[in-house]
Write a structure and sequence with these properties.
Blueprint (H helix, E strand, L loop, with lengths): L1 H8 L25 E4 L2 E4 L2 H9 L19 E5 L4 H12 L3 E6 L2 H8 L6 E6 L5 H14 L5 E4 L17 H16 L1 H6 L3 E6 L22 H26 L3 E6 L7 H10 L2 H13 L4 H4 L1 H8 L8 E4 L9 E3 L9 H15 L11
Parallel strand pairs: 3-4, 3-6, 4-5, 6-7, 7-8, 8-9
Antiparallel strand pairs: 1-2, 9-10
Length: 368
């Protein structure tokens, strides 16, 4: 489904309008403003591009999960750990000795994580990102039991669902994909800041290119289109990463914020989306597209794993597949669109997220 969205973004019209697919129009992008100023600091938004050229990425040597170093003694929190990319991430980390706090909405479904082979360990805990009370309860339990968290992998998400609301009244995609992870990251700041060289990795999507921050109607109460709402939530993931990195740097924190996307990976995200909207033709079409175009979850998880554990990763970077239209392949540095690098939108989104969740990241004000 993401590939169809991506093709739509580049101006290819869908051919299934008669089956109820939402129409899409092309997007134009403003000329990039490579250097902007905010809060008295200069940020060179072209730096990741220069670094990519310097390092010779895309890689001649293809990085795989086999290249992960020993992670013994390190603690990871992985959201959505029981299926899809989250399960593959948990599997790879446990194989290399990590302790993984597997955050799952359904504990019965999450028991698959506890049976994974490897020298690492899995600590299964319940987390519902669509419920801020659940987020706070999960975070408190983790903070009570772990002095440090080396990596928080904000992996879980929902895609292109009919409009619904979270337990707190937020639009479901924005509330789960962005606000839930925003609150979780803030609630886990203490053990993250206590770890040496901690990382917060947030999974976005190429569908961020369809997104626009509609600050006057963030919850889609006046106008809701499921793919536009998904694009907005994935754009929010990138703006959150950029702003969090700015705040880590300003506070002198020994932590970085990084983003990644999986390309078109054949996971339960697509099938769950098709079942949720109840369109048989779309569910069948999704199954065919996954087989024909989708890469495996084992490949799709590589960019977020690279962002989480590879040496040399810098704050604010964005990783995705190195193949055609970033739809498949091995991890490489990629570039988000201009909207994802809009510092004014990033600051405004941060303020709105604090207001909506009540999580203020006050620890960063006390770091220096």
């Amino acid at each position: 489904m993401e590939t169809l969205c991506r093709l739509s973004y580049w101006g290819v019209h869908r051919t299934l309008d008669a089956a109820g697919w939402e129409p899409r129009s092309g997007h134009s992008e403003a000329a990039p403003d490579e250097v902007t100023r905010r809060r008295g600091r200069r940020t060179n938004l072209g730096a990741p591009l220069a670094r990519a050229a310097k390092l010779g990425l895309a890689y001649d040597m293809k990085w795989t999960a086999a290249d992960i170093a020993d992670q013994s003694g390190k603690t990871f929190v992985v959201t959505g750990a029981n299926s899809g990319l989250g399960l593959e991430a948990t599997k790879a980390l446990v194989t290399h000795g990590a302790t993984v706090v597997a955050a799952c909405r359904n504990l019965d479904a999450g028991r698959i994580c506890t049976a994974l082979p490897g020298p690492g360990t899995v600590d299964l805990r319940r987390l519902d990102l669509a419920d801020l009370t659940s987020v706070a309860q999960f975070a408190r339990s983790v903070v009570d039991d772990y002095q440090t968290i080396d990596v928080l992998l904000n992996n879980a998400g929902v895609m292109a669902l009919p409009r619904g609301e979270t337990a707190d009244g937020f639009e479901r995609q924005f509330g789960t994909n962005h606000l839930g992870h925003f609150a979780l990251t803030g609630e886990l700041l203490d053990p993250l800041l206590a770890a040496p060289a901690a990382r917060v990795v947030t999974v976005s999507s190429t569908a961020h290119r369809m997104g626009k921050m509609n600050f006057d109607d963030l919850m889609g109460e006046r106008n809701y289109q499921r793919w536009s709402a998904y694009g907005q939530s994935k754009l929010a993931n990138l703006l959150f990463t950029a702003e969090l990195q700015q705040r880590f740097a300003a506070a002198g924190a020994d932590a970085i914020a990084v983003a990644a996307h999986p390309g078109y990976s054949a996971t339960n995200l697509q099938s769950a989306h098709a079942r949720e909207i109840g369109r048989g033709i779309e569910e069948k079409f999704t199954a065919v597209m996954n087989k024909v175009l989708g890469q495996s979850a084992e490949m799709g998880v590589l960019p977020e794993l690279y962002a989480a554990v590879a040496p040399g990763v810098a704050g604010g970077e964005y990783y995705g597949p190195d193949g055609f239209m970033e739809s498949r392949g091995h991890p490489t540095l990629v570039t988000p669109n201009d909207r994802a690098r809009d510092e004014a939108d990033a600051a405004r989104l941060w303020a709105e997220s604090v207001r909506l969740t009540g999580v203020d990241y006050a620890q960063l004000d006390r770091t220096v």
